[in-house]
Amino acid sequence: MIVTILAFLLTIGVLIVIHEYGHYRVAVACGVRVLRFSVGFGRVIWRRQPKPGGTEFVICALPFGGYVRMLDEREAPVPSDQKHLAFNRKPLAQRAAIVAAGPIANLLLAVLLYAAANWIGVDEPKSIVARPAAGSLAEAAGIQAGDQIRATSRDGVDWREVRSMTDLRWEVAQALLQKETLELRVAPRAGGPERNVTLPLASLDARELDPQAMRRVGVGEPFSAPTVGAVTRGGPADRAGLKSGDRVVEIDGARIADANDVRARIRTNAGAAGAAPMRWRVERAGSMLELVVTPAVVGDNGQRIGRVEVQMGARPAMTSVRYGLLEGLASGATQTWQMSTLTLKMLGKMLIGEASLKNLSGPVTIADYAGQSVRLGLAYYLGFLAIVSVSLGVLNLLPLPVLDGGHLMYYLFEAVTGRPVSERWLDGLQRGGVAIMLMMMSLALYNDMARLLGLQ
């Protein structure tokens, strides 16, 4: 919990500082006097002013945001000898640049964070897939456990190399959201020539990028040998005599392909009258044993599933994914662009009802993912930080009155008409923008709580 909280505070702190520093740096460059640079809102808990009459730097008690307060005649009287330093007196292009600098700083930060993660490198599961779920698109396409996905394409002409399972999931998620057909270049586990298969993702009509949608696609899980790991003492597997290191060969006479196959058979063995006994054939120290395993039946998101309380599956085959200096930087720019467009498309689909509002996440989910990524290692945390930085940059460019994008819309109106938006309209738009933001924040927090309580 402490790691999660510290990781969350570091994430929020870094992104706010970079965002506000973008505004601050460009404002200073344009000759605007900056009165205060604040990280957070509310009561000031730390304050520093390097020189009298200069910018006051503060940290406040509520860390959810920040601001740069500039000299502005619309907020307070400005002495005549300082009017040339006021924000509102600057040319339209400079005002727009100052406002846009915050989101742009977040997007540039994301490029550097992605690049740093690429340079450090990570060990990721190879794109060798588990047995596709029954009824999935991958099963219908003939993909089998142990097949390796080497490349993907959306048009059959431009192919992208798949370096790891993370690459594969990303390509599937993008094609799924855009309702595009995805072609895969598959190297069979049993050997032989590579073949191309087609996944018609548009037929799924998925409204959420959740585990259920990925199961319906069928290529999201890495291959793992059906080897028994840790066994919970007193659980169904322990009572049946299963031991760590056992390799599952057959269940109820059916040959087992991989660990995913075992988990699926256990999960679906939960009828109204309880779970039926399962006949397992396992290999232990070179000998074959016959065991009877009866799963416990538990509730999971409103469904009854079987569970034997055992860690199933050997560690997947791994590969080191690392980039050179220029390649890593170019990949960072590409990843930032792809994540930005994906975020915009997701928001657009939520707005018109083609994507579920459950995709909207808030601070609890961010904190949870921050803690998880820190535990995985520096490269994973930098990648997570890049994702949140992209989200903050894109969100602030939306044309909502209380956001930077809303102010840019005001300046666009001024550029077209030659006059600023009237105070009456500004007041009404600001109120409307605050109402929209409050609704979005409430929905995001509700989704966080629903996930935390297992209601989604």
TrEMBL record:
<dbReference type="GO" id="GO:0016020">
    <property type="term" value="C:membrane"/>
</dbReference>
<dbReference type="InterPro" id="IPR008915">
    <property type="entry name" value="Peptidase_M50"/>
</dbReference>
<protein>
    <recommendedName>
        <fullName>Zinc metalloprotease</fullName>
        <ecNumber>3.4.24.-</ecNumber>
    </recommendedName>
</protein>
<keyword id="KW-0472">Membrane</keyword>
<dbReference type="Pfam" id="PF02163">
    <property type="entry name" value="Peptidase_M50"/>
</dbReference>
<dbReference type="GO" id="GO:0006508">
    <property type="term" value="P:proteolysis"/>
</dbReference>
<keyword id="KW-0378">Hydrolase</keyword>
<feature type="domain" description="PDZ">
    <location>
        <begin position="228"/>
        <end position="256"/>
    </location>
</feature>
<feature type="transmembrane region" description="Helical">
    <location>
        <begin position="96"/>
        <end position="117"/>
    </location>
</feature>
<dbReference type="InterPro" id="IPR036034">
    <property type="entry name" value="PDZ_sf"/>
</dbReference>
<keyword id="KW-0479">Metal-binding</keyword>
<comment type="similarity">
    <text>Belongs to the peptidase M50B family.</text>
</comment>
<dbReference type="InterPro" id="IPR001478">
    <property type="entry name" value="PDZ"/>
</dbReference>
<dbReference type="InterPro" id="IPR004387">
    <property type="entry name" value="Pept_M50_Zn"/>
</dbReference>
<keyword id="KW-0482">Metalloprotease</keyword>
<dbReference type="GO" id="GO:0046872">
    <property type="term" value="F:metal ion binding"/>
</dbReference>
<dbReference type="InterPro" id="IPR041489">
    <property type="entry name" value="PDZ_6"/>
</dbReference>
<feature type="transmembrane region" description="Helical">
    <location>
        <begin position="428"/>
        <end position="446"/>
    </location>
</feature>
<dbReference type="GO" id="GO:0004222">
    <property type="term" value="F:metalloendopeptidase activity"/>
</dbReference>
<keyword id="KW-0862">Zinc</keyword>
<keyword id="KW-0645">Protease</keyword>
<keyword id="KW-0812">Transmembrane</keyword>
<feature type="transmembrane region" description="Helical">
    <location>
        <begin position="378"/>
        <end position="398"/>
    </location>
</feature>
<keyword id="KW-1133">Transmembrane helix</keyword>
<dbReference type="Pfam" id="PF17820">
    <property type="entry name" value="PDZ_6"/>
</dbReference>
